[in-house]
Amino acid sequence: TIPALEENNWQLEGLNNFRQNVQGEGVYNAPDLTIIALSVDLSGCPGTATLQARVANIGNLGVPAGVEVAFYAGTPSAPLGLLGTAATTVPLLPGASTLVTIEVPLEGSPPFAFFAVVDDDGTGAGAVTECDEDNNREAIDGVDCAIII
């Protein structure tokens, strides 16, 4: 049946979408941060390396500068510990990218493995609500000062 008097949508719990203009399942207008490339500058070998993460926003909304990127030793399946964090220095509008770098010590025996996670403050916590939280990391392994190209 059709009610004689319709309740105000914006006053109903969980709604407030009266003139949303978007229909359908799974529509989520949000940023989507990802690392599209992780590289290593070995010019500081054998003492240090510079990790370079290319952070991109492949979502539909921008994010301000200051999004944290955490850099870890090891692989995502076998992490060896946090190396440090760095933040983006520019806002990332949809389709934009920026380079975030950190210098890390090379300790132990090569080959080394590293990974980076965008929107991670080093504790695993993020500050940005994204469309897809499962595409925030990139890894690199086989890093060895003897193989400098």
Layout of secondary structure:
Elements: E1 33-41, E2 48-57, E3 68-75, E4 78-87, E5 97-105, E6 112-118, E7 137-143
Antiparallel strand pairs: 1-2, 2-5, 3-4, 3-6, 6-7
Q: Keywords, please?
A:
149 residues; mainly beta; elongated
What does this structure look like?
The chain has 149 residues and is mainly beta. 0% of the residues lie in helices and 40% in strands. It starts with 32 loop residues before the first strand and ends in a 6-residue tail after the last strand.
Brief sketch in words of this structure:
With 149 residues, the chain is an all-beta fold.
N-to-C order of helices and strands = EEEEEEE
Estimate the strand proportion.
35-45%
- Reading side by side through the largest sheet, how are the strands ordered? 4-3-6-7
What's the total number of strands?
7
Sum up the overall morphology in one term. Answer: elongated
Name the average pLDDT. 88
Separation, N- and C-terminal Cα atoms: 73 Å
Structural class: mainly beta
Helicity range:
under 10%
Q: What is the helix tally?
A: 0
Question: Largest sheet, described in full?
Answer: 4 strands, antiparallel
